[in-house]
Amino acid sequence: MIWLVASALLFSIGAYGALTRRTAILMFLSIELMLNAAALSLISFSKLTGSLEAQVVVLFIIAIAAAEVAVGLGLIVAIFRRRETTSVDELRQLRG
Amino acid sequence: MSIGFWEVLALLVLVGTGLAVVRLQNAVHAALALIANFLVVAGVYVALEARFVAMIQIIVYAGAIVVLFLFVIMLLSAASANVGQDLLPRLGWVAALGALGLAGVLTYAVTRFQPPAGTPALGGGLPQALGPLLYDPEKWLYALLVVGFLLLVATVAAVVLIEPERIVAATSHPAHLRQDQKPSPSAGQQKDEKAVVKR
Amino acid sequence: MQETFLLPLIIALPLLGFVLLGLFGKRIGEPAAGWLASLLVLGSFLLGLVLLLQGGGRWALPDWLPGIPFSLNLDNLSGVMLMVVTGVGFLIHVWAIGYMHGDPGYSRFFSYFNLFIAAMLVLILGDSLPVVFIGWEGVGLASYLLIGFWYHERINVDSARKAFIVNRIGDLGFLLAMGLLWSMFGTLSISELAEKVEAGGYSFTTLTLAGFFLLVGAMGKSAQVPLMVWLPDAMAGPTPVSALIHAATMVTAGVYLLVRHAFMLHDDAYLSGLIVFIGLLTAFYGALCSLGQWDIKRIVAYTTLSQLGFMFVAVGVGAYWVAIFHIVTHAFFKALMFMTSGSVIHALGGEQDVRKMGGMRKYLPATHLHGLIATFASGGLVPLAGFWSKDAILAYSFEYGPWLWFLMLLASVLAALYSIRWYVLVFWGEYRGKEHPHESPAVMLWPNHILMGGAIGVGFMGLPYVIDYKNFIEPFLTKAIGEFPHEKLPVLTEWVLILTSAVVAIAALWWGFRFFQQKMPAWYERFQAAALQGFYADALYNTLLVNPAKGLAELLFGGDKGLLAGFAGLGNLVGGLGSLLARLETGSLRFYLAGLLVALVLLVGWGVLR
Fold first, then answer.
1. Which of C173, C225, C300, C348 is most buried when burial is the number of CB atoms within 10 A of its CB?
2. Which of C191, C235, C209 is nearest to C482 (CA)?
3. Same domain, residue pair C514 and C555
4. CA distance linking residue C362 with residue C359, whole number of Å
5. In this structure, is residue C514 part of a structural domain?
6. Could you report the predicted ipTM of this complex, rounded to two decimals?
């Protein structure tokens, strides 16, 4: 149904943002958008198949997203305290 | 579900705020756009008979998570999105193409979905309905407990990430009690400090 | 003939010498190393003599290889060879004690010398063809080591290699023969093969083929044409080596091999005819080349070649015992000739060019006597040893066909000529060099005395039947080789032949004596220039075989290098590819995310579109 398409669209938009944003925080924000899109698709499926289990899963998604954001932002803060820049392109230590 | 005026409006807002999130240059504006997006999604949830989840969406997702984002944006003064040099200038096009492709593929995928006939009612997705599922040991109880534990871990992690040595050092040797501190040139000032702290 | 362990002991003695001198030679030092080696060989001689007088002996290790025992057999035939090898070998060892004096590789020399004797004994005593082959290869190895003894000089090493490689061609024949015989008869023991062949019932052509391959092996070892090119160059080794290996013993191994397999040859007219042809060719080739050489050792080397040709003719006409008889007489006078040459070289401080010799009879009286006797024996002067064995060959050749007798007579004339030429150029006339010749020490003279005695007297073992004196050697050898019925020539014919060869030899020696003292006429100079080059045999082989092979080797080497370069190139290719792929390792998060996105699109697309 339409909300499935919506979730697909939102997911894609979030993906675009994750690639395009140069600041870590904004990249993370886009990822949250993608996560939300996934949750939306689950709820749609819940409605379509009449299964409440999907909603339970979405609850978990939200809880886990919260945990993830906490840790992720903590990481961002820790990294960028040292570097004094929030540019993602500066993080090149995995280069090999 | 029929597509009426409200559905189209909601869709437009969703897509619009989504685009705003990924394109706005001011981080605070982007976060606010995301909040709007989440609120509309919550409304969609209500329409899809997932009211409890909708409430949780508003309280937790929009009200805590994105707010946390805003805190961090303020803390780091990272309101600007233009930092440094764009080292991958053509990535924008690749991303756009990729995103379009993804959208197309996913849309195609979901249109192929055949919902089963005769779906039972969801009962609005109320806590009474979800409770038995969540707390049933044969269903999601253990998952629930694990997620709870996960939240605890995340909390501890967040604390650890702010360098506890500095906290420990700060808490066990408060600045005014430090041995290595030089005596201040004016005794009066020192007295004031001590006086203040003692109080 | 009983089973006796003394037989392997005969081989073990010189082998022990090889090991001991190889390991401790430097500590044993001069001249003890030489005496040790010589005494070990003498020990083998005495042991062999004892066993032979008892009637021989056998020894075997069964199932050394599956179905093939390691068997040794001392019968009259191998006994005679044994006596020659160890007897003459002992004398040459002793002579070498003096000759090699002062050489830094003294003990190494004797170690190799003993190795040679041991290998030669294995060859002679072997009853099982693989055992013979071990000895065969062993003497080839010893020959290689000894020719290239002074390995710091390139020419010596090249000569050694040449000898080894040409021999190898012969070895291939030997191996093929072994294979054929095994497949035909299921055994490689010579005594058993003899029985089976006599019993009959095999394919004549296959047996001829096997015999032909054996002949190829013999040709390689005995330097017959066309595998003769290694022998002149083998003179790069020290003179004792030339005397022992390339005159008296190793080169006769081919003849011995053929005689051992007489049971295969005597019924086979084609094979025997081929042997006669090859022998004739070699006899003439050697004689003619010798007449053109200026190096004293090369002169003698070519004479050896010629005499080996004689031996092959003897085998070809069925005179098997005569071939062995000739080996015996030839061993004495040829070793004497070499060692006399060596004494002269030693006296002149290393000079080997006969153009710088002459007049040695005045300075080296004892050596001169040796040389004179050697010349007469080699030239076939009656009643010295060389006459009787050569005459026997001529008699049998006459039976084969008077044309053959005539050709062999011609060859004997050449033999007389080259012998006297050697004598005249070295000992007669006036000394043309600048050194101060001195006679050899006693240790070098005494072996030559003994050899001289042998060159004079050994022939009396095998006098023709018309002379009323028992021919010892013929029945002695025939007992082992096999009785092949042979019609004796009429008495008159026999006497005519004897007298003709005697007179011809004397005449040739006298004529040569006069001829070689004068200045050489123009036709001789032209002939001599060609003979010096071995009638361009080496040049021919170089063009036809050696250079193409070298070219191929260069090509393959280049190809191999190219291949390795190609593999290296392949490595570079992979490296390049790797570098290319490494450009994906940007370390940039967004780049990786882009990769993820693209992959995701593709995967989902594939999943959906299936």
1. C300
2. C191
3. no
4. 6
5. yes
6. 0.88
**Among C260-269, C296-305, C376-385, C559-568, which range has the highest average pLDDT?**
C296-305
A-contacting chains (≥3 CB pairs under 8 Å): B, C
Give the distance from residue C580's alpha carbon to the nearest chain B alpha carbon, in angstroms. Answer: 18
* CA C553 – CA C559 distance, rounded (Å): 9
Q: What angle do CA C116, C19, C140 make, to 5 degrees?
A: 25
Q: How confident is the model at residue A91 (pLDDT cuts 50, 70, 90)?
A: low
Q: At a CB cut-off of 8 Å and minimum separation 6, what does C598 contact?
A: B94, B98
B38 φ/ψ angles, rounded to the nearest 5 degrees: -65, -40
Query: Which fold would CATH assign to domain A2-91?
Result: Helix Hairpins (1.10.287)
SS3 label, residue C69 = strand
C582, C585, C597 member nearest A19 (Cβ): C597
Cα dihedral value C314, C318, C319, C323, nearest 10: 50
Residue C147 CA to residue C163 CA, distance in Å, equals: 9
- Give B76 or B171, the one with higher predicted confidence: B76
Instruction: Establish if C585 touches chain A: CB-CB under 8 angstroms.
Output: yes
In this structure, which amino acid lies at residue B153?
A: V
User: Which tens digits make up the pLDDT trace of C52-73?
Assistant: 888 878 888 887 888 788 888 8
Same domain, C357 and C462: yes
CB B33 within 8 A of CB B24: yes
| Residues of chain C found within 8 Å of residue B86, distances taken between Cβ atoms | none
Which residues touch A82 (CB under 8 Å, ≥6 apart)? none
| Structure-token pair, residue B85 | 């040099």
Map residue C312 onto helix, strand or coil. helix
- Given an 8 Å threshold on Cβ–Cβ distance, is C588 in contact with A15? no
Distance CA C25, CA C30 (A): 9
Interchain pair C597, A22: CB under 8 A:
no
Per-residue pLDDT tens over the stretch C156-187: 999 999 999 999 989 999 999 999 988 888 88
Per-residue pLDDT reduced to its tens digit, B129-176: 888 888 888 888 999 999 999 999 999 888 888 776 666 666 665 555
DSSP A29-47: HHHHHHHHHHHHHHHHHHH
Residue A53 burial (CB count, 10 A): 15
| C604 at B interface, C-beta within 8 A | yes
User: Are the C-beta atoms of residues C135 and C121 closer than 8 Å to each other?
Assistant: yes
- For C266, the 3-state DSSP assignment is coil
Q: Which chains touch C (3 or more CB pairs under 8 A)?
A: A, B
**Chain C residues near residue A94 by CB distance under 8 angstroms:** 585, 587
By C-alpha distance, the chain C residue nearest A14 is C597
Rounded mean pLDDT, C524-540: 80
Final residue of a structural domain among C518, C550, C578: C518
Count, residues in chain C? 610
Shared-domain flag, residues C102 and C219:
yes
Residue of C nearest to A31 (CA): C593
pLDDT, one tens digit per residue, over C199-243 is 877 788 888 888 899 999 999 888 888 888 888 888 888 999 988
Cα dist. C70→B38, C78, C121, C132, C250 in Å?
98, 16, 14, 10, 22
- DSSP at C461: G
Test A18 with C593 for CB contact under 8 angstroms: yes
Q: What tokens were used for C252? A: 């006769």
* C contacts of B113 (beta carbons < 8 Å): none
